[in-house]
Specification:
seven-stranded antiparallel β-sheet, globular, alpha+beta
Length: about 550
């Protein structure tokens, strides 16, 4: 039962017995549902939905980006992690970039920001080979059709097109696609991406390896990017394979919390929940100053360790198990004063990296989505091209927007996230899953850089501590401690639906409060599926801040 005190907007949770797909775009959800109804697995459905997001949400997802998976196996409930983030090119060195970086930072847009291998498609391949049921080529029919014939411009896409006109206009092939006739399209106008349709067709027919990483598309991408300065080469793409990894776990009030290990910020979520477990959150009540203050303070403490350590564990020995230990959280919780806010920029790390270095807060854009099927498989998946429209560069005649994820590498040789060939950068992308009694209970996550750990903590506490259903947990007013999408300040942004009383009290405690709209896009588009084992239903929720839907059958 849902909490009678939880928020309600009239959008109910979606409850269905055979499967649910929840994504930030309704056409992607529908494509995933169609795959389930034709006998596909949750993995098949997730790939089909992701392919449509690459067409309908090109500002957030794309063939030129990375992806991360958590897959709960039917029957056993074992959770498998899949890291489909690409490493830096072999030619991508600090010396390569310093002549192009007067501010000692890698350019955030343009061909020079394209220095890592797009990993998402090989993640599709690896997941499908292990857990797929339908033929690979069937998974792309909807995406190919929408790219060839056009998709309606959604509200979210239009908002980002309007904001990014000056960026997109720098790169004519990109502007030709997304600013047809030199103007911003209207909401609902048909957006056609014929070249992207051709690339999708080639991947569908030939597979991920021959169709993309070892084939003509890789050659065409690199042939176009090389003269413009990108260090990415066809050999880098051919050498890449997504990697199966063991999830990292902790517990929260008896539930097992599963996250992905570095190079993602998954350990940050485990730290936040470990810190919060020491408080009686239910006694505070949702929407109170106590709730928001302690959530923000836990985030600040966890972020200090994240920014001190997070990078590719193949290059830096990250003390993950120490960072996610309950005893460590007990020690770090002493930093939190219930009456006074910490300065996020001054919170010390609990374990120091061997060299002092500047801490950098990430930003970025993302699509989180999830799927479940009649056999009990549950998938939690996130995919991104980093910034809105990634590098803003469409590679050659492929129609593919290339990610700029590598722009977050540091050029300081002593920084843990310093640029090195073959290295994966610090990643914000984190799909999440909760288990109860060893069985998948909740797949959940959100887009939004620094907001992802915070949205996950909000949903977990609202479902577990306050008894909300998944739709209520998604819709409840959210906060964002830190910065996102290029903003310079690291304020505590609060949605306008939070009470004046709570806002006044947060200001009194020294929180750097900044009010935003009632339903703010920067809070991220959150989605979730809960497994009701007792009733035999999947319960899905979708975020009204986006353009999505939770669909089931």
């Amino acid at each position: 039962m849902s909490s009678p005190n939880g928020p309600r907007t009239g959008r109910p949770s979606t409850r269905a017995p055979r499967g649910v797909v929840s994504t930030p775009h309704y056409l992607a959800s529908a494509a995933g549902l169609d795959i389930l109804q034709r006998g596909g697995t949750a993995v098949d459905a997730a790939i089909a939905a992701n392919a449509v997001l690459c067409v309908a949400y090109p500002h957030m997802a794309g063939l030129g980006g990375d992806g991360f998976w958590l897959i709960a196996e039917p029957g056993t409930g074992k959770v498998h992690g899949l890291n489909a983030s690409g490493p830096a090119a072999q030619l991508a060195t600090a010396d390569y970039y310093r002549p192009h970086s007067p501010d000692n930072e890698i350019p955030s847009r343009g061909p020079l920001s394209i220095l890592t291998v797009p990993g998402a498609i090989d993640g599709w391949r690896a997941a499908h080979e292990r857990f797929g049921r339908l033929d690979w080529s069937e998974l792309f029919n909807a995406a190919i059709t929408y790219a060839r014939e056009g998709v309606p411009v959604s509200r979210s896409l239009l908002d980002w097109l309007v904001q990014d006109v000056p960026i997109l206009q720098r790169y004519q092939p990109t502007a030709d696609i997304f600013l047809p006739g030199g103007r911003t399209p209207r909401e609902g106008e048909r957006l056609v991406q014929a070249q992207l349709a051709q690339s999708l067709q080639e991947i569908a027919q030939k597979g991920a390896r021959a169709g993309f990483y070892e084939g003509a598309i890789a050659e065409r991408i690199c042939k176009d990017m090389q003269p413009q300065g990108s260090p990415l080469r066809a050999d880098d793409l051919a050498a890449f394979h997504a990697e199966w990894v063991e999830p990292i776990t902790s517990t929260y009030r008896g539930y097992t919390v599963c996250e992905l290990p570095p190079n993602t910020q998954g350990f940050t979520v485990l730290q936040i929940l470990n810190l919060l477990e020491g408080y009686d959150i239910r006694a505070w009540g949702d929407g109170t100053a106590d709730y928001y203050h302690h959530m923000a303070e836990a985030v600040k403490v966890a972020f200090a360790d994240r920014e001190e350590w997070l990078t590719d564990p193949n290059f830096v020995n990250i003390p993950v198990q120490e960072l996610i230990a309950k005893s460590y959280a007990d020690e770090r919780r002493r930093l939190i004063d219930p009456e006074r806010a910490l300065n996020i920029a001054e919170v010390p790390a609990g374990i120091d990296y061997k060299y002092p270095h500047e801490r950098r807060a990430p930003d970025g854009d993302t699509c989180y989505f999830c799927a479940s099927d009649k056999d009990g498989m549950v998938v939690s998946l996130i995919q991104s091209i980093y910034h809105d429209f990634g590098s803003a560069v469409v590679a050659g005649d492929t129609g593919i927007i290339m990610q700029n994820r590598g722009a977050f590498f540091a050029l300081d040789d002593h920084h843990p996230n310093c640029l090195q060939p073959g290295k994966r950068t610090f990643h914000t992308l984190i799909p999440a899953m909760l288990l109860r009694d060893g069985k998948p209970y909740l797949a959940f996550g959100s887009m939004g850089g620094e907001g992802q750990p915070q949205s996950q903590a909000a949903m977990a506490t609202r479902i577990i501590d306050f008894g909300y259903d998944v739709q209520q947990a998604i819709e409840a007013p959210r906060w964002l401690m830190g910065r996102t999408w290029g903003t310079k300040s690291r304020n505590m942004s609060l949605e306008g639906r939070i009470s004046d009383e709570a806002v006044r009290e947060l200001k009194r405690r020294g929180q750097p409060v900044q009010m935003v709209t009632d339903w703010n896009d920067n809070m991220g588009h959150a989605h979730a599926i809960r497994v009701d084992h007792a009733q035999g239903f999947f319960e899905g929720g979708a975020d009204p801040r986006g353009d999505g839907a939770a669909l089931g059958y």
